[in-house]
Amino acid sequence: MHTIEQVLDLPGMQREIEDLGVQVAAPDLWDDQANATRVTGRLSALQGQVERFQALQGRIDDLTVLVQLAQEESDADVLAEADTELAKIRKAVEGLEVRTLLNGEYDEREAIVTIRAGAGGVDAADFAEMLLRMYTRWAERNKYPVEVFDVSYAEEAGIKSAELAIHAPYAYGTLSVDAGTHRLVRISPFDNQGRRQTSFAAVEVVPVLEQTDEIEVDENEIRVDVFRSGGPGGQSVNTTDSAVRLTHIPTGLVVSCQNEKSQLQNKASAMVVLKAKLLALKKAEEAALKKDLKGDVAASWGDQMRNYVLNPYQIVKDLRTGHEVGNPQAVFDGDIDGFLEAGIRWRRGAEKAVAN
User: Fold this and answer.
1) What is the pTM of this model?
2) Between the CA of residue 346 and those of 101, 104, 108, 253, 316, what are the distances in Å?
3) Does 87 share its domain with 187?
4) Structural domain for 46, as ranges
5) Which of the chain's ends, N or C, has fewer CB atoms near its CB within 10 Å?
6) Do 202 and 115 fall into the same domain?
7) In this structure, are 199 and 276 located in the same domain?
C-alpha cells in the first residue's frame, strides 16, 4: 500500500482535485462543453481513485484492530474471520496495484469494444454472442455503464458483430489487453452428429477519443485574400472585391466564398465552412488513430491469444500470460478480472523488456 501510495502520488492527486473543483464551480464552465466534459470526467476519475485507496486503507486499519482483539481474547472464530478478510484485502490491493500500471497515453479513457465472428461458421457467430455477454456482464459486475451501439445478428444463431462502449475511467487501459483472437473448442450444439468444433472471434478495443462539436481556429493561422467575384451577378457582384478566400496555413485547407455582396458576409460564411472542414479533418485523423490502436485481428488459426475449451476438458487459458481457470462458465459470466490483471502485468513486463 505504501508503494501504491507513492506511485499514485496522493498529495498531487488531492491538489489536482482541489484545482478541478474550483473549475467545476465556475459559472461559465459549460460555455465550453468539450472542456467541461474533460474537467468533470477527470475530477470524477481522480476522486474515485482516492476514495478507493482510502477505503482499502480503512479496511486494513479495521483488520488490525480485529486481529489484536482476537489475539487478546484467544477467539478462534474471530481469527478465522480476520483470515477471510485478509484474503479479500490482499486481492483488492493486487487489483489496485494493477491500476498503477495503467499509465499509457489513452489508458484513462473509456473504451469501445468491437466483437466479430471469425472462422467457424454458426459456432463462431454463437461464440461472438457469448463474448458480448461476457464483457457486458463484466461491466455490470463492476457497476460500469454499458452502451451497445450496434449488433449485427447472424442468420441461424449468434451475431456477426457487435460494438459496445464501456463508460468507466481506465476502461481502455484495462480491456485493451483482451484485444486479439479468442478461440472456442466445444461439442457443437449446431452439429446433429455431436462433433467437436473449433471456432474463433476477434475482439478489438479502442479508446473513446475527445471530440468536440466546435473547433477553435487561430486567426493568426489564416491567410485572407479578397478578389473580385466571377460568373453571373447583379449590381455589385462583379464590380467590387467582395469575394473572400481563406487559407488555413497549418493544414493547407482553402475555402472561398463569393455568394454574398458584402466582403464581411463572405468571410463569415467562409469561416463556417473552414471550421466544418477542420472538424471533419480532425475526426478523420481520430478514425485513423483508432485503426492504428486496434491493430489487425485476423480471428483464425495461429493468432489466438486465449483458448476457451469446453470439451474434452474444461479450461480457459491465456496463451500469453499462462493465466488459466477451470471454470469456463464463470468466465462467460463476466469473471475475467484475473485475466485482465495478468494481461496488464504481462504487457508492462513486455514494455520493460523492450525498453531495456
Assistant:
1) 0.63
2) 11, 14, 19, 44, 17
3) no
4) 2-99
5) C
6) yes
7) no
